[in-house]
Design brief:
Largest sheet: 6 strands, mixed
Number of strands: 12
Strand order of the largest sheet: 5-4-7-6-9-8
Structural class: alpha/beta
Order of helices and strands: EEEHHHHEEHEHHEHEEHHEEHHEHHH
Oligomer: single chain
Length: about 350
């Protein structure tokens, strides 16, 4: 029997040989399993067990572990044999499962809970979901990481600049739409000895050589442009570089831990000045040297420096919004209007 209230109390009663020991034994199951309601009758618990021992008893701790594993096995079996019924359950109770991963101190328990999670995947049609074990079974040979991308919707996930390089390589990516999903997967860290990695972190971590071809700026132009952008942005960007991982997007911002950074902006960003936020985030600004906007920017920096500065600042601001690192995008309106005004001067 399950209870859907997220703030509900423990609902498992403890009995010994049909004699009630406690009507609401809140330590028989971890808090994230508070949706489980029922009765536990154990012959091994002494009838005169004190309240103190009930709170801190090796027998109770063992019983707690056994019950937790039993609930997880039951749910896993149901997810395999009664998929439709399980997905109806998951719609209402996935919050509790994800809370379990965040609050559990045991990696084994985290991974057992993770088997019950469901996400959309880049290789599946919209609306279809996949489990993490199913994802690992489909991984390419040699792939050692489980990739995920957090976005408000499928459309935004598929058009994300962070997804482009993995899409090109044919690497599958889990799509997470709930605001707290990325924190859950960040807490999971590993599954079956494979790292659980955000696509933003992968983009920042993997080294790459500067690529020069017929479609890109020349190497000297790339170097000159990155140096100029560094001066223009000042302390806003910790590092400026060009990248070959982008195709349709002109630029992107990466930070070391995107999920933690977004959480910081949402919960504490208002307590810090803009300069302090940039110092804490240490954003890396990466430009696509084959994109028409970046090529034009390279020309503008000498032909029309004022316009080039406005374009650069707007590109950086756009990238921060795309990364989810701007709490209120309305703060960009002033700079956007200045850019439009400058661009329309000759018309």
């Amino acid at each position: 029997m399950f209870e859907t209230s997220r703030e509900g109390e423990a609902g498992v009663a403890l009995y010994c040989r049909k004699v009630m020991i406690k009507s609401k034994a809140d330590n028989l199951l971890p808090k994230w399993l508070r949706f489980v309601k029922g009765v536990v009758d154990s012959e091994d618990i002494p009838l005169n067990l004190s309240r103190e021992l009930l709170q801190d008893s090796s027998l109770i701790r063992k019983l707690r572990q056994v019950l937790t594993n039993r609930v997880l096995r039951f749910l896993l079996e149901r997810s395999r044999k009664e998929t439709k019924s399980y997905m109806e359950f998951y719609k209402d109770y996935s919050f509790f499962l994800k809370e379990g991963i965040v609050t559990s101190n045991e990696q084994y328990e985290k991974e057992e809970i993770a088997k019950l999670l469901r996400f959309e995947c880049s290789s599946l049609p919209s609306g279809e979901t996949i489990s993490i074990p199913e994802y690992t079974e489909k991984m390419k040979a040699g792939q050692r990481e489980i990739f995920y991308l957090s976005a408000p919707s499928r459309q935004l996930a598929e058009t994300s600049p962070y997804f482009e390089s993995l899409k090109k390589d044919g690497t599958e990516v889990l799509f997470c739409y709930e605001p707290y999903d990325e924190l859950v997967l960040m807490q999971l860290q590993q599954f079956d000895k494979k790292n659980v990695t955000s696509v933003e972190k992968e983009m920042r971590a993997v080294g790459e050589e500067t690529v020069v071809n017929d479609d890109t700026l020349e190497l000297k132009d790339q170097t000159d442009l990155t140096d100029w952008v560094k001066i223009t942005l000042g302390q806003k960007a910790a590092k400026i570089k060009t990248t070959s991982k982008l195709e349709s997007h002109p630029c992107v911002v990466t930070v070391e831990e995107m999920a933690a950074a977004r959480h910081f902006i949402k919960t504490q960003g208002a307590n810090f000045s803009e300069e302090q936020r940039y110092t804490i985030l240490q954003p890396q600004f990466e430009m696509n040297p084959a994109h028409p906007i970046i090529k034009k920017l390279n020309e503008l920096k000498t032909a029309n420096p004022q316009l080039a500065i406005l374009v650069t600042e707007q590109l950086f601001a756009n990238s921060m919004v795309s990364a989810g690192l701007v709490d209120d995008p309305r703060t960009m309106l002033k700079s956007m209007n200045e850019l439009l005004e400058k661009a329309l001067e000759k018309h």
